[in-house]
Write a structure and sequence with these properties.
The protein has 4 helices and 20 strands. It has 412 residues and is mainly beta. It folds into 3 domains: 51 residues; 150 residues, Jelly Rolls, CATH 2.60.120; 159 residues, Jelly Rolls.
């Protein structure tokens, strides 16, 4: 009765809710209509066929919502019809046109050398040139450049598109957007392909990532695909990158610092490692040295992961506009180049947003230094049900101590 599946701009918000107050009236009118046509066989068959079709589409779209076939939030007419008959999610990005200030578009179909890094992975395939990732070449062609000038003042989004082809059912490859300054990574973002690829078929994917704040003229962005599975062959073609500046609304980070009256909730987790408070991997706590108290957490080649905080997101946030602030004291006798803070959002066992942060900003060798970051939580599809935060060092040489760790979860 209440099916309104044709209203595409409500597709991701359960369209029938827009007139839920009129259910009773619609039901009475429909019952009256069915009573009037009981003796008109042809008209009755047409009406019953139409109603059955609408009910089927309504139930089918409910299934699509349950499986996250439609992206979260507002979507475009094109995205809606593209997913109209799909039973699995497609990787698509929608940014309202009225919020875009300006944009810069880069496209590479790999038919000609354009100066991107690692073009040696490009080869002929069915008459076209594509990037091939396999056991002998785990990285794709790489885009690397500074940000457009307008990104220094506007809120920035990088939208990435590509066509992919994998020889396995669930790809182990990922699309990477890495942000660097002076060749040191301070933000590493992974988009896993396994939920979107189809075995031995070309599939178009899209991914968007917010640029870290602030962006300076010295920052670089690296965009590439990575395939660590020696049994998988991944082909990449028609790669597009769009740098988009959207309307300058007051950032959530500014809200944290200057607009506490707008905060709906804030929850804080603190660990000074003086006792086991339930965080995982407590075996890394040591009495070697400490900033306060007698204990700290040590990270080195034998134990590359710190004590780990894990919690369900529903226990931390109360709205969709969210910020995480992280603070910690860190100490090392040598430079820290590879150790990262990791904020990993998960849905079940799958990462839906994996974020890393460099520790170098205020670090001084041989002294306890304050590390702090403000992180705007991105929209995720599907929404994460838990979060894991920890420090991680892939280095065989670095050893450091962390103490007085504090994570604050803020909702607006």
């Amino acid at each position: 009765i209440a099916s309104s599946w044709w209203v595409w701009n409500y597709a991701s918000k359960f369209s029938q809710r827009v007139f839920i107050d009129f259910y009773a009236i619609i039901g009475i009118l429909l019952a009256y209509l069915l009573m009037l046509i009981q003796q008109k066989k042809i008209l009755k068959n047409i009406i019953y066929t139409l109603l059955s079709t609408l009910i089927f589409f309504n139930l089918f779209q409910f299934y699509q919502h349950n499986k996250w076939v439609f992206p979260y939030g507002d979507i475009t007419k094109e995205i809606y019809w593209d997913s109209f008959t799909s039973i699995v999610p497609k990787a698509r990005v929608s940014i309202p046109e009225d919020k875009i200030i300006n944009s810069e578009f880069v496209f590479n179909d790999f038919e000609k050398n354009t100066g991107w890094n690692n073009e040696t992975c490009i080869t002929e395939y069915n008459g076209n040139r594509v990037a091939v990732l396999d056991s002998s070449n785990v990285y794709s062609v790489e885009f690397r450049d500074t940000f457009p000038p307008h990104f220094s003042t506007d809120k920035g989004i990088i939208k990435i598109g590509a066509d992919i082809f994998s020889n396995i059912k669930f790809s182990d490859a990922s699309l990477i957007a890495e942000f660097q300054i002076e060749y040191k990574t301070y933000s590493y973002n992974s988009f896993f392909l396994k939920a979107y690829n189809k075995q031995n078929k070309w599939v178009h994917i899209e991914y968007a990532v917010y640029t870290p704040e602030p962006v300076t003229p010295f920052d670089f962005v690296k965009i590439f695909f990575y395939n660590g599975n020696p049994l998988e062959t991944l082909l990449v073609d028609n790669m597009s990158i769009e740098f988009i500046s959207v309307q300058n609304e007051k950032s959530l980070i500014d809200n944290v610092q200057n607009a506490s009256s707008k905060i709906k909730s804030r929850k804080k987790e603190i660990n000074s490692f003086e006792g086991d408070i339930g965080w995982e991997n407590f075996k890394t706590v040591t009495s070697d040295m400490a900033y306060t108290g007698k204990k700290s957490c040590r990270i080195d080649k034998t134990q590359p992961f710190s004590v780990l905080f894990e919690e369900e997101t529903k226990n931390l946030f109360t709205s969709e506009d969210r910020v995480i602030t992280a603070r910690s004291m860190i100490y090392s006798d040598a430079a820290i180049n590879e150790t990262r803070l990791v904020i990993d959002f998960k849905n079940g066992d799958e990462s839906v947003s994996y974020n890393t942060f460099d520790l170098n900003a205020n670090f001084k060798t041989g002294k306890w230094s304050l590390f702090t970051i403000n992180f705007v939580v991105p929209e995720m599809e599907p929404e994460a049900d838990k979060i894991r935060i920890y420090f991680w060092s892939p280095s065989q040489d670095e050893q450091l101590y962390i103490d007085d760790v504090e994570f604050e979860f803020i909702s607006f």
